[in-house]
Automatic annotation (TrEMBL):
One Pfam family per UniProt: ROK
Protein name: ROK family transcriptional regulator
InterPro entries linked: ATPase_NBD, ROK, WH-like_DNA-bd_sf, WH_DNA-bd_sf
Family: Belongs to the ROK (NagC/XylR) family.
Length: 379
């Protein structure tokens, strides 16, 4: 028998339903449906909308999730920029701000700035309920302990509990704080209607979010999708920032492209600068963007063969020069993957642009606080 949480999940998945729809889909009696809806309506999680078109007789009222019944906070930590946002209960961004700060400074420096930034954003939403906070990092995350775990590029963060920094904020209090890897968050934001999708984050580093059979795959040690540190012949002997040599990132990662251009005397600090140069027609920047695409395409070809996704989505800073990057990626991907795996494969840009990580981080916490288990526990 469908619980309150299951009825809520059904409404959330379908968008709008009538009481008759819910009765038919759940098998509950009209009385039981009414009782469950009374709980959800009383809590403000569900609202009544315009009546459905009449088929004769009194029009039926539609029910939908009240996305204005509170907010969630999104904190997407990047290597050179951290993005803070307030989102509604559908993950739509209501307010946004950036902290341009190197993650290499460590949590003791960056996390207090994040707290201050969230306090400033929250001034726009006095008295609004905070349902939860999402925090994503560009590396492997131990979600239970609430910290970065074994990430070679976040050495100062490894094992440092991050929840206490946010729990100290007066408005957050006991609201759940959910941590995950940024590529996983982007995958939730960019999956579209696909149950099998490979979302590539091509920014300073390289990573992927994997959805297979409708499930986000994190791996036994939460390290699924770290393809940027696969060994490739083109990078043989070239040092990577992870401490090893021969990694794909050492020739195709944004940080490697920036380094190469700086060695040529070109003034760039981040891949975003490179993307601007390429978009303005700089031949060397354009060449490097395309070569990065070729290397990434070859790097993900085995994953495409193994997983057979319906789509490969390109997110991260390279999405700003999508056509250039994907021109190289398609060439090597289709040349190295099997015809069976690529026959119907779509390669597409991230629909949320540079907000993919922000929206995905909000969706991570929403999946937690609005889950069947969470709603049932609440009521």
């Amino acid at each position: 028998m469908a619980s309150v949480g299951e009825v809520f999940a059904l409404i959330r998945a379908k968008g709008e339903l009538t009481r008759t729809d819910i009765t038919a889909l759940t098998g509950l009696s009209r009385t039981a449906v009414g009782a469950r809806l009374a709980v959800l309506l009383g809590a403000g999680l569900v609202k009544e909308c315009q009546p459905a078109p009449s088929t004769g007789g009194r029009p039926a009222t539609q029910l939908s999730v009240d996305t204005d019944a509170g907010i969630v906070l999104s904190v997407a930590v990047g290597l050179s920029r951290t993005r803070l946002a307030v989102c509604d209960l559908a993950g739509a961004v209501l307010a946004l701000s950036d902290i341009d700060s190197e993650v290499a400074l460590g949590p003791a420096d960056l996390m207090p700035d994040i707290g201050k930034g969230l306090d400033v954003l929250l001034e726009q939403f006095p008295g609004v309920d905070i349902h939860g906070v999402g925090l994503t990092l560009p590396g492997t995350v131990d979600a239970e302990r609430g910290c970065s775990c074994g990430s070679a590029i976040l050495r100062g963060w490894d094992g440092v509990p991050l929840r206490p920094y946010l729990e100290a904020l007066p408005r957050i209090g006991s609201a759940p704080i959910v941590l995950d890897n940024d590529a996983n968050a982007i995958a939730l934001a960019e999956r579209g209607g696909d149950d099998d999708v490979l979302v590539v984050k091509a920014s300073s580093g390289l990573g992927a979010g994997i959805i297979a059979g409708g499930v986000l795959l994190r791996g036994a040690n939460q390290a699924a999708g770290e393809f940027g540190h696969n060994k490739v012949v083109a990078a043989e002997g070239i040092p990577c920032r992870c401490g090893n040599t021969g990694c794909l990132e050492a020739v195709a990662g944004g940080w490697a492209i920036v380094r190469a251009l700086q060695q040529q005397g070109i003034s760039v600090r981040h891949l975003r600068d490179v993307a601007e140069l390429a978009a303005d027609g700089d031949p060397e920047a354009r060449r490097m963007v395309r070569e990065s695409g070729r290397a990434v395409g070859a790097g993900i070809a085995p994953a495409v063969n193994l997983l057979n996704p319906a789509a490969v989505v390109i997110a991260g800073d390279m999405a700003g020069v999508y056509e250039m990057f994907v021109a190289g990626l398609r060439e090597s991907l289709y040349g190295n993957a099997t015809a069976e795996a690529t026959g119907a494969l779509q390669v597409r840009p991230a629909t949320h642009g540079d907000r993919s990580a922000t929206v995905g981080t909000a969706m991570l916490v929403l999946e937690h606080v609005l889950s069947v288990a969470a709603i049932d526990a609440r009521f």
